[in-house]
């Protein structure tokens, strides 16, 4: 199952946005408090529970300076997945979107595709609202 989020335009340089997103500690600022609980993050790992869905554990597996952050599931998860955070931009603005790829069966896809799409879009929509 592949999900591509909306694209957000952020009023910050590509490098600044990359530096922010390359540290999982900063993801806490993106999570909607009414939908996410039990958030525990380090620079490279993050675990949290999406209310009504499941606990998610993920880690950053690769950082391509200024442009791409690769994230993968680790430890206990409902299914294996990867999440790619793409950052394009200039010294003044950036565009960010996420591409999720999860190994799920057809039944699971029907249940989680819409909630996950909404979740990734919420993360992206929070980026432009931060104090850059």
How would you concisely characterize the structure shown here?
The chain is built from two helices and eight strands, in the order ββαββββββα. It is an alpha+beta fold and 132 residues long. The relative contact order is 0.27.
Brief descriptors of the model:
alpha+beta; eight-stranded antiparallel sheet; 132 residues; globular
Structure description:
The protein has 132 residues and is an alpha+beta fold. The chain has two helices and eight strands. It has helices at 14-21, 106-126, and strands at residues 2-4, 8-10, 36-41, 45-50, 55-64, 68-73, 81-89, 94-102.
Strand portion: 35-45%
Poorly predicted sequence stretches spanning 5 or more consecutive residues: none
Order of helices and strands: EEHEEEEEEH
**What form results from the Cα inertia axes?**
globular
Q: How large, in whole angstroms, is the Cα Rg? A: 14 Å
| SS element count, helices | 2
Helix content: 10-25%
Whole-number mean pLDDT: 94
N- and C-termini, Cα separation: 33 Å
| Number of DSSP E strands | 8
Instruction: Please outline the major beta sheet.
Output: 8 strands, antiparallel
| Class per helix and strand makeup | alpha+beta
